[in-house]
């Protein structure tokens, strides 16, 4: 007879808990394979070999939420190929709902070759012409899954090409009409856009629809056309909008700033030894969305919001201590352990 250990049991309860309170986070967009050099600090041309790593910001966020004990799903398209099936398996292994995933037999799963050069700059080479994620159609959307979501999270890469762009806009509409919180991380990848102007326009076209937006300092400079990302007035005048419940500006290891209608402030970063910064922003997003999914009052309660953002900072920090995005995303246990150790010191 199979017997449950208490931890198995509490896990089951926790999963049911999430389902009952309807705190599902649905992440929409691209999932792909990153090929990363086996040695650091080289250009793509110099790399002797590459290691495959699952990637794609929305998928990373879905896994991050699930690792924390939250409830998440991924909607997107991959190729009906070995890489596509592998990516679906990785999501399943991480308890991410995959019923919204689609497989295209006429296009390949997207690939990206990514390296951190010796000068610290990231170099990208994308194989997407077109890749399966760009071909998701509105008719392929899992509408029921969207209607169950508490939070609908998306980026901007899915806005670059049709038919995916129309599917993205339709998914936003369905989620909004179902009373969902819309969460936006523009996650700018200029190399994928036809031009900088096209990127700026598409990213800003849907800007005022989100309830929660996370943006980096570089993205502020880009979207405002060169303004000072540290100036609160720039952020409040050009980027804050009446529908926003929360705007977060991430500053890497320095932490983050937050803006709501009622208050603004900053949370200092968490000091760790960085190994690889891949996925840190996605881990941060999964941390804050995990908190919002279980408690929508944090938009009005600054003390609770600050606590949630500190938690998100730890998620981001712990991710840079491991290589790759998905393998390095922290569990709830790892964060509690970190807090314990920090309290002792």
TrEMBL record:
Domain of life: Eukaryota
Enzymatic reactions: D-fructose + ATP = D-fructose 6-phosphate + ADP + H(+)
SUPFAM superfamilies for the chain: Ribokinase-like
GO molecular function, one term: ATP binding
EC number: 2.7.1.4
InterPro entries given in the database record: Carboh/pur_kinase_PfkB_CS (IPR002173), PfkB_Carbo_kinase (IPR050306), PfkB_dom (IPR011611), Ribo/fructo_kinase (IPR002139), Ribokinase-like (IPR029056)
CDD domains: bac_FRK
GO BP term (any one): fructose metabolic process
Domain Carbohydrate kinase PfkB: 24-331
Keyword annotations of the record: ATP-binding, Carbohydrate metabolism, Kinase, Nucleotide-binding, Transferase
Pfam families attached to this UniProt entry: PfkB
Pathway assigned in UniProt: Glycan biosynthesis; starch biosynthesis
EC class: transferase
Gene3D superfamilies for this protein: 3.40.1190.20
One GO cellular component term: cytosol
Function: May play an important role in maintaining the flux of carbon towards starch formation.
Family: Belongs to the carbohydrate kinase PfkB family.
Protein name, as recorded: fructokinase
Originating organism: Phaseolus angularis (Azuki bean)
């Amino acid at each position: 007879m199979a017997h449950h250990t208490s931890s198995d049991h509490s896990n089951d309860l926790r999963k049911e808990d999430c389902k009952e309170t309807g705190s599902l986070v649905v992440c929409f967009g691209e999932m792909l394979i990153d090929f990363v050099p086996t040695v650091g600090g080289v250009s793509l041309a110099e790399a002797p070999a590459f290691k495959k790593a699952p990637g794609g910001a929305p998928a990373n966020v879905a896994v991050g939420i699930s690792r924390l004990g939250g409830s998440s799903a991924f909607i997107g398209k991959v190729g009906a190929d070995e890489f596509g099936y592998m990516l679906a398996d990785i999501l399943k292994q991480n308890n991410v709902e995959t019923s919204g995933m689609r497989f295209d037999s006429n296009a390949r799963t997207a690939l990206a070759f990514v390296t951190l050069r010796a000068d610290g700059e990231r170099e990208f080479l994308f194989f997407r012409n077109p890749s399966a994620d760009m071909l998701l159609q509105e008719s392929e959307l899992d509408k029921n899954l969207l209607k169950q979501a508490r939070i609908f999270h998306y980026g901007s890469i899915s806005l670059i090409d049709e038919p995916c762009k129309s599917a993205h806009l339709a998914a936003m509409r369905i989620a909004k009409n179902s009373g969902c919180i819309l969460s936006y991380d523009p996650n700018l990848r200029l190399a994928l856009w036809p031009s900088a102007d096209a990127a700026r326009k598409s990213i800003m076209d849907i800007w005022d629809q989100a309830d929660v937006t996370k943006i980096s300092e570089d993205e502020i400079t880009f979207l405002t056309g060169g303004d000072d990302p540290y100036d609160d007035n720039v952020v409040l005048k050009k980027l804050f909008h009446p529908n926003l419940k929360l705007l977060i500006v991430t500053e890497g290891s320095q932490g983050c700033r937050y803006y709501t209608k009622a208050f603004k402030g900053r949370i200092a970063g968490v000091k760790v030894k960085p190994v690889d910064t891949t996925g840190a922003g996605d881990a941060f997003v999964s941390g804050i969305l995990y908190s919002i999914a279980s408690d929508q009052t944090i938009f009005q309660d600054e003390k609770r919001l600050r606590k949630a953002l500190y938690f998100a900072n730890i998620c981001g920090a712990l991710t840079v201590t491991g290589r790759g995005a998905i393998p390095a995303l922290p569990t709830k246990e790892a964060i509690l352990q970190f807090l314990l150790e920090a309290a002792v010191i």
